[in-house]
Amino acid sequence: MAGSFLSRESTIAPLDYPRILVPPAALAVHLAIGQAYAFSVFNLPLTKLIGIDHSAPGDWNIKEVVWTFSIAIAILGLSAALFGRWVERVGPRKSMFVAALCFGGGFIVAALGVHYHALLLVYFGYGVIGGCGLGIGYISPVSTLIKWFPDRPGLATGLAIMGFGGGALIASPLSVMLMEHFKTAASNGVLETFVTLGVIYFMFMMIGVYNVRVPAPGWKPAGWTPPAASPKLVTRAQVAVDQAWRTPQFWLLWVILCMNVTAGIGVIGQASPMIQEIFAGRVSATTAAAFVGLLSLFNMIGRFAWASTSDYIGRRNTYMIFFALGILLYFSVPSLGRAGSLPLFVAAFVIILSMYGGGFATIPAYLRDMFGTLHVGAIHGRLLTAWSVAGVLGPTLITYIRDYQLKNGVPKAQVYSLTMYIMCAFLLIGLICNICMRPVNPRYHHTGTESAS
Amino acid sequence: MKLKAVLLWLAVGLPLLWGVYKTLQNAMALF
After folding, report:
1. I need a labelling partner for A290 at 20 to 30 A (CA). Which of A167, A174, A367, A423 fits?
2. Which of B4, B16, B24 to mutate to test the interface with A (most CBs of A within 10 A)?
């Protein structure tokens, strides 16, 4: 019974089904898994499980705890790549259900790890099981949305992936509130918060499971006819996932995503100390936290705004803006810091973070333009390995360069200048790859009978 | 169907609006 409810066949919508019902289903999943970006609120409390208000002997240290998030992001990329084909085969409902089980269950297993004070169990629960929920949940609704919105694929995927950015805005204050609520003399509330979040997120993701639908074969939006002539970089052909990753276009897009994410993710991780050190004496820890919150907000807004814009100006032009404007802004940041212009400094970074989010949200539509809709979810899954690599590369590089310069006597306020110029170089690589993008060679086109719906 | 659409959008929109509100509330510290 449950098997049939979860099957792809039972999710096929009638021809008159209003497509406006589908984006909230996708948002329910992405808003939940977007919690990952707010996991850092647990870092300090996880180092005080024994001491409650302070780190006691036997408590975990911060360097051990932060691995939980890194493992989750690495597993996100790997599971998206590994399970992409499975997600395409079984459809969005079953894959969203598995994602909900993994993500909610991951919290419960991590709570057991907190209870038994076993860090490996926390890594396994949130990092591995939860990470699988992140990866499967991230790609589950993407190809479905692209098929429902052939006229506005950027808007559709931007809306869903905006949820991943928005999830942190909800999870951060919610987690803090829950930890305060559950805090007692014997517990700092992390265990109870993990259990509560596991249940809440499972139920929230079930909204998506119940309401997601795939369009019937041959369905198209009322009054919409595919344009007679497609732009040069929008294909009408289909490319299967096993062929797609053999094309140069896949690897160009892989580098494009990797460079865009590396440039943004390095800043996200260091935003708080960076603004405090560049504007020493003017920016407190509280103000720096506000800056980080603002970056998260624009990360979310950028996902929707840039992906929607890409429907009008084209995917390649959108990435041209990301890279060209990104280089300009990163290049100007050291000067803005030296000039002491806090508002302009903040403005530069919120635009940079909007383009970081926009890069994530526009890539599924770029893939659809290059490879068609047949296996776009699975191809997207494989492309997300670029995120895993960038997730390690960006923060490691920024931290390494910062430490190296500090050791060589560079003043704290200036240690980020070199980093910004290196980010410019990354964006330049992305820009060149984007310029090199050409339509896929027809020899890779799919000629089989597999349905694209 | 319209009621379902409204309820669904509210279910996902209200938590998101709350998150945005809390973020903006904190961001006021910057200005």
Report:
1. A423
2. B16
**Residue-level pLDDT at B21:** 94
Q: What is the CATH number of domain A2-211?
A: 1.20.1250.20
In chain A, which residues fall in CATH 1.20.1250.20?
2-211, 241-442
Neighbours of A101 (CB within 10 A): 17
**Calpha distance A133→A284 (Å, rounded):** 36
Long-range CB pairs of A59-65 (<8 Å, 24+ gap) are A60/A119, A64/A119, A65/A119
pLDDT, one tens digit per residue, over A175-220 is 999 999 999 999 999 999 999 999 999 999 999 999 999 999 889 8
Candidate from A20, A31, A287 with C-beta closest to B16: A31
Task: Please state whether A340 falls in left (phi above 0), alpha (psi between -120 and 50) or beta.
Answer: left
Task: For residue A12, report the phi and psi dihedrals to the nearest 5 degrees.
Answer: -70, 125
In the three-class reduction of DSSP (H, G, I as helix; E, B as strand; rest coil), residue A409 is classed as: coil
Output the pLDDT for position A436: 96
Distances, alpha carbon A127 to alpha carbons A68, A119, A140, A176, in Å? 5, 11, 19, 20
The pTM assigned to this predicted structure is 0.89
Q: Which residues of A touch B6 (CB under 8 A)?
A: none
CB distance A24–B9 less than 8 Å? yes
CATH topology classification for A241-442: Growth Hormone; Chain: A; (1.20.1250)
Q: B30 or A236, which is more confident?
A: A236
Nearest chain B Cα distance for residue A293, angstroms: 6
Choose the closest CB to A289 out of B4, B12, B26: B26
- Report the mean per-residue pLDDT for chain A: 91
Per-residue tokens: A131: 């990470």
Predicted local confidence at residue A222, as pLDDT: 86
What is this model's ipTM?
A: 0.95
Place of tokens 């975990």: A60
